[in-house]
Write a structure and sequence with these properties.
Length: about 350
């Protein structure tokens, strides 16, 4: 007979759970406090907070998009290339093809979902590892981006872009940048799907044990394709927002967003719901990255500090994600063994 846990072990488990679930959020608050004390005249200001929210909205959206396949145990390395293609396509349709901007944006967002579905189909039905498959499709997207632009920027004419289109990024609501509310809306929708709908539960089951999911009747291939389609949909929306921000089509701009997106998705899997990718955790992780990058930037860090910070954080995130998953398995096994 297995001995029951001692009374002292229960508070320890509870405290460990609280630290694992909310430690990253506390770190974000601590970083903000430290930088506010170090830079009292510039960091804790409304303008700086607005700048952080605005500048990090696109990386946050891309990280949320990456979170969806990660929940199934897959990785979509094409999201950076997809972001570049989406923002170029929006400007191509508006500037060179004369489309109304709402129709161009809708076409690109839906096109992102189609491209994501193709990614999922190649991974699942082609039985190709997601790293290799999406790296290959991403390279194809990059080539297509170069073909559309002929390697040059898409620059609007003297009349510029419609103000209603650029307002997608430049507008403010309740004194804050509108892109911050896009991030909150996407995060809330993704949280609802993952935590409250059968679709989200199926994705988590597939990610934890695809064989068991298939045995209990979950159509694993179909739902994995859904995950990639959802990621493509979010990437398409992020591309629209990037086009409204940049206002020129740059064929190489999307690659810079790939690493921060995966840092946010993987680091987010260590908090709120430790051991699994989740939308709220991703938002918290992006907040940590945003505050950290803004702080070291204002302290006068050199240009190489940003990739160093992102790369080191990615290594830490992968390590913590693995530790959280193993800890969750050990906790579950201990609970099963306890009568």
């Amino acid at each position: 007979m297995t001995a029951s846990p001692s009374p002292r072990s229960v508070p320890r488990r509870r405290h460990g759970h609280l630290i694992g679930a909310y430690g990253l959020l506390a770190l974000a608050a601590l970083l903000f406090l430290v930088f506010s004390l170090a830079l009292p005249d510039t960091f804790p200001t409304r303008d700086n907070v607005s700048s952080i929210l605005s500048n990090q909205s696109i990386p946050a959206l891309l990280a949320l998009g990456a979170t969806i396949p990660v929940a199934t145990g897959k990785f979509d390395l094409s999201i950076g290339y997809g972001l570049g293609l989406a923002h170029v396509m929006v400007l191509q349709l508006i500037v060179n093809e004369g489309w109304p901007w709402p129709l161009a944006c809708l076409a690109v967002i839906l096109g992102g979902a189609v491209v994501g579905s193709l990614n999922g189909g190649i991974v699942e039905f082609g039985q190709i590892d997601s790293f290799i498959a999406t790296l290959g499709t991403g390279s194809v997207m990059y080539a297509f981006t170069g073909w559309i632009t002929d390697g040059a920027r898409i620059v609007p004419g003297p009349q510029g872009l419609p103000p209603s289109f650029t307002g997608l990024y430049d507008s403010r609501l309740l004194g804050l940048p509108v892109p911050a509310f896009y991030v909150l809306a996407v995060a809330a929708a993704l949280w609802l799907v993952q935590e409250r709908l059968p679709l989200g539960r199926y994705l988590y089951v597939i990610g934890s044990n695809p064989r068991a999911a298939a045995i209990i009747g979950v159509p694993t291939r179909r739902y994995s394709v859904y995950a990639f389609a959802g990621s493509g949909l979010v990437v398409g929306f992020a591309g629209v927002l990037l086009a409204a921000q940049q206002q020129t089509g740059n064929p190489s701009v999307g690659l810079d967003y790939l690493l921060p997106a995966f840092v946010g998705a993987l680091l987010g899997s260590t908090t709120v719901k430790p051991g699994r990718a989740n939308a709220l955790g991703t938002v918290v992780a992006v907040a940590v990255l945003a505050v950290g990058l803004a702080g070291i930037g204002q302290l006068g860090a050199r240009f190489w500090a940003t990739p160093l910070f992102n790369g080191a954080t990615l290594l830490i995130a992968v390590g913590l994600a693995g530790y959280s998953a193993r800890r969750r398995l050990r906790t579950g096994a201990a609970e099963v063994a306890t009568p």
